[in-house]
Design a protein that fits this description.
Blueprint: E1 27-36, E2 39-49, E3 54-59, H1 65-73, E4 80-85, E5 88-89, E6 100-103, H2 115-126, H3 130-143, H4 159-171, E7 177-181, H5 189-206, E8 209-214, H6 217-223, E9 226-231, E10 234-239, H7 241-246, H8 251-256, E11 261-270, E12 275-279, E13 285-288, E14 299-304, E15 310-312, E16 326-336, E17 340-347, E18 352-358, E19 373-377, E20 384-387
Parallel strand pairs: 3-8, 3-9, 6-7, 7-8
Antiparallel strand pairs: 1-2, 1-4, 4-5, 9-10, 11-12, 11-14, 12-13, 14-20, 15-19, 16-17, 16-19, 17-18
Helix pairs in contact: 2-3, 2-4, 3-4
The chain binds adenosine-5'-triphosphate (ATP).
Length: about 400
């Protein structure tokens, strides 16, 4: 569809079983609904998750992602629909009998128990022999790199270390599926990023299936094989991180994942290999290098990521003043973010467009600055057309 080099996401290193109709999913969710009174917290959700996936449920506050996770764990009962794991229908199966374990946002460690005893707790309850408990706890602590802190109490640990105790406590039970509710929420930004990599490494080493709930799209993009984007109890798009970022199927997903410029338009030309969109409210035309599944004169939205746009003081090479994929404006704001700068350009209509410019050179002189008249241009593959 789109041209240009696409960076690969985690899904690229994965066999992508969801593309193979002969593969059976590990978790199958069919037409699942959960209501509280007359409120639909989860609304007719169908979803397949495959063995070894790191699947993220991503959405804003209150969209139903935690409820969906709790339904899988067995802490909530569905109003309608069903969930099966490995072909076994989970209706009526209590949480402790399900082949899943859930790691809560709060971690809920026992403050009076050492790290090792916290991790051993679930196995003791199952009545496993002490030698087996010792060896499994040692393995789990080594995996999360806490073997040297086994005797400490939770209050003697950092936030990141406590998070890893909670993880070890879930892993030690060797569930088929680990459910994680905002596992990194309590960590500061730097630790979050480090822990994202650790979580992915552990999940890969164990080949376990992880389902994670997060409202942080960066986190979901970095860790997941696939992402399910939720809104108002429904899953509105499922795809690899690259797919939901590059090919959002709705204005909601386009706007929720990353920053994006959206323009209203009318499809002026709809051919199998290209399309032309006439801007509405903006003197601009969009030349798109692929066909759109909509007839001419359909109303559409063209969405363009800030990093796909270019900023220049002079007319960009190959463009004339009335070329498509070109806007004129004035630099209104510049946010220097280190690796890149975000330029906010105000168009004649008053509308703002965000353009991100990588800072590949030291910014000793600002080539484009506040109040500069500029051209904003983009290649034909940059625009994603959403049919309203
Ligand atoms: P957050 O990121 O804020 O935790 P979420 O997407 O995880 O949000 P849920 O916890 O799944 O959201 O809640 C979805 C909706 O269902 C919310 O509007 C919430 O108020 C409602 N809800 C959840 N549990 C109950 C309950 N036990 N009784 C009534 N309403 C509930």
């Amino acid at each position: 569809m789109a041209g240009g080099q696409q960076p690969t996401d985690r899904a690229g290193a994965f066999a992508e079983p969801w593309r193979d109709p002969h593969q059976t999913p590990l978790i199958r969710i069919e037409r699942l609904t959960k209501t509280f009174g007359d409120f639909y917290a989860v609304d007719d959700v169908s979803l397949d998750i495959y063995r070894g996936e790191f699947f993220s449920l991503l959405g804003g506050s209150g969209c139903g992602k935690t409820t969906l996770l709790r339904l899988m764990a067995g802490f909530e009962m569905p109003t309608e629909g069903r969930i099966s794991i490995d072909g076994v229908d989970l209706a009526g199966v209590p949480p402790h009998r399900r082949p899943v374990n859930m790691m809560f946002q709060s971690y809920a460690l026992f403050p009076h128990m050492s790290v090792a005893r916290n991790v051993a707790f679930g196995l003791r309850q199952e009545g496993l022999p002490s030698a087996e408990i010792r060896s499994r706890v040692a393995d789990a602590l080594e995996l999360v790199k806490l073997d040297r802190l086994a005797k400490r109490k939770p209050h003697q640990l950092s936030g990141g270390q406590r998070q890893r105790v909670a993880l070890a406590r879930c892993l030690v039970k060797r569930p088929k599926v680990l459910l994680l509710d905002e596992p990194l929420a309590a960590l500061d930004r730097k630790l979050r990023e480090e822990t994202q990599f650790e979580l992915v490494n552990i999940q890969e080493q164990l080949g376990m299936t992880f389902v994670i709930v997060t409202h942080d799209q960066g986190e979901a993009m970095a860790m997941s094989t696939r992402v399910g984007v939720m809104d108002e109890g429904r899953i509105v798009q499922i795809g690899t991180p690259n797919e939901v970022y590059e090919y959002p199927t709705s204005r909601f997903v386009a706007g929720f994942i990353g920053s994006i410029n959206m323009f209203d338009g009318v499809l002026a030309e709809s051919a199998p290999d290209h399309a032309l969109v006439e801007g509405v409210g903006e003197p601009v035309r969009f030349h798109i290098d692929h066909g759109i599944a909509a007839p001419a004169s359909a109303t559409v939205t063209v969405a363009i990521r800030p990093e796909k746009m270019r900023l220049s003081k002079t007319l960009p090479e190959g463009f004339t003043e009335d070329s498509p994929n070109l806007l004129r404006g004035t630099v209104d704001e510049i946010a220097y973010l280190g690796g890149q700068s975000i330029y906010v350009v105000v168009l004649e209509s008053g509308r703002m467009v965000r353009v991100s410019v990588p800072n590949t050179h030291r910014m000793t002189e600002l080539p484009i600055t506040w109040e500069d008249p500029v051209y904003v241009s983009w290649p034909a593959f940059a625009g994603v057309v959403l049919v309203d």
